[in-house]
Amino acid sequence: MLKGISIYPETLSNKKKINRIRRDKNGPAKEGGRGNLLVDAAESGLMGPDKAPDGPPHVDQLPIKVDYGDELSPDQSLTPGGSKTSSPSSPGDDVMLGDLTFSVDYNFPKKALVVTIQEAHGLPVMDEHTQSSDPYIKMTILPDKRHRVKTRVLRKTLEPVFDETFTFYGIPYSQLQDLVLHFLVLSFDRFSRDDVIGEVMVPLAGVDPSTGKVQLTREILKRNIQKCISRGELQVSLSYQPVAQRMTVVVLKARHLPKMDITGLSGNPYVKVNVYYGRKRIAKKKTHVKKCTLNPVFNESFIYDIPADLLPDISIEFLVIDFDRTTKNEVVGRLILGAHSGSAAGAEHWRQVCDSPRKAVAKWHSLSEY
Fold this sequence. Notes:
With about 375 residues, the protein is mainly beta. The chain is built from two helices and 21 strands.
């Protein structure tokens, strides 16, 4: 197995599918069957980056008065490091998160920093079904955050041995004292977003690899979710037609997205739009993938039927996602507008849309960490 990856500075500078589901109040969902409520779940796939689908925008008939199970609302299901299903093994303040062992070395002839992620011990249980975890580690060199790498996932273990070496070229030895190694320890989740176990921050100002490899073991600490990380910006437009009782959502463009690929190359972003009524997700759509860009232009619209009296309970979530053919897609950042807006700017945008019927209100929003 190929272990690790070498990072070079030159790599761092630089038709519609429609599902119609009818649901009875007293029975399960049926394809094309008789029922009291119709949901048009028209979702555009990842058809390509160059052109949008032909024809009119998609329209969702939003379900209002039926029980859709236990899907959580954005404020509950999208908290960093959380899980779609509650787990008593999720790390808390009183849970020991284990420790991480790694080494730091410097190759003077090649002006390269060499980091070997060796192993972790005493990780907490993140999967209550297997009473284990599927750990892997993401590493970033701060403050520039250009160097991003990650290990392979090790299945069902609380004592993972990675033994993976990453070489970062073009880093002068004199700059080491200004750098910080950030290790993020995660547990892979096949059915939802991965669980964050904790993090390790190592300032290189206190490390001297000039005479050889330095072996270090650090305690894994609970992640500081309030740290400020730039995730880029997303521009969206919303307008509400009170007569037709329709909300038009337009995903316009994004800018300054971070590089998510471990090689440091530009990503392949797309936007997933989730609509919530109270605590239930009732519609989901996604734009096309825009290849090899950190400043994508989407210009894709989606239309939802929403009665006016239900607007106070509606939330619209935008997830900017980096598409990856070989590994799991990674969420770049998120934005929530509506009942669960997480920012003053988001709440104000929603208020303007509700107070200005028939007017398209477009705004830029900073993406928050997912």
